[in-house]
Write a structure and sequence with these properties.
The chain crosses the membrane at residues 179-202. It is found in: Secreted. The protein is α+β, with helices and mostly antiparallel strands and 233 residues long. The protein has 8 helices and 6 strands. Strands 1-2 form a two-stranded antiparallel sheet. A two-stranded antiparallel sheet has the order 3-4. A hairpin with a 4-residue loop joins strand 3 and strand 4. The longest helix has 37 residues, at 178-214.
Length: 233
């Protein structure tokens, strides 16, 4: 029996340009409701044929940001929100999918994500190129602590948690011992070293043909030099 899809209800409060999570809860929704939500948040911006000027917000699925636009007043689509917060609360579902890797495992019924804890806990924090301001948590491997950072809203990695508790539950067991942290750091250093050596050898191989052409030596050169000296004497 396939697992039912999971969505999240996230309540945000904007303070100094940063959306902070007040409360969040998970619930199962029918697939029809999820498809309607996806259609609403992925619909294009529609100004409409009327000539009024209402300030509205729409969710840009490409940039994964809520953006302001001028609504004409009629014949709009569902991707039309009165406030920026309403837009984020409605279309935050895809962002809330990063609440915890455990939720993705429960939804898919697979433990594939648990096989690579390095991706969830050892990867550096990634703000991303987008310009939103989401307060998120990441696991700092060096200090073995969960720390906050500002997430831009797109192109992040798996070391990105909505709650500190989910960060701890994912990474405290796998990376609590100093031996595990040392092993991961050594693996990263070895990878960097091997990559640097590969680049170095490639540069050497590219320089060798130039050196061989510019430093061709022959005994005939010495003979000609000696003969020219003999004539000058």
């Amino acid at each position: 029996m396939p697992a039912l899809p999971i969505t999240a209800s996230v309540y945000l409060q904007k303070s100094q340009g940063i959306f902070r999570v007040l409360n969040a809860s998970l619930k199962l929704l029918p697939s029809t409701n999820l498809s309607l939500l996806s259609d609403r948040c992925h619909s294009p911006k529609t100004v409409g044929p009327c000539r009024a000027s209402f300030h509205r917000w729409w969710y840009n699925a490409t940039s994964q940001l809520c953006q302001k636009f001028i609504f004409g007043g009629c014949k709009s689509n569902a991707n039309n929100f009165i406030s920026e917060q309403d837009c984020f609360q409605t279309c935050i579902r895809e962002q809330a999918a990063c609440i915890s890797p455990a939720f993705r495992i429960a939804r898919s019924g697979s433990s594939q994500d648990l096989a690579s804890p390095v991706e969830f806990c050892a990867a550096p924090r990634v703000v991303g190129p987008c310009r939103a301001s989401f307060l998120r948590w990441y696991f700092d491997l060096e200090s073995r602590m969960c720390k906050t950072f500002i997430y831009g809203g797109c192109h992040g990695n798996k070391n990105n948690y909505l709650f500190e508790e989910h960060c701890w539950s994912q990474c405290s067991v796998s990376f609590s011992s100093p031996a595990m942290v040392l092993a991961v750091l050594l693996a990263i250093l070895v990878t960097i070293l091997l990559g640097s050596m590969g680049v170095f050898f490639v540069k050497i191989c590219r320089k060798n043909p130039e050196l061989s052409v510019g430093t061709v030596w022959s005994t005939l050169d010495d003979k000609e030099y000696l003969m020219s000296n003999a004539y000058t004497l």
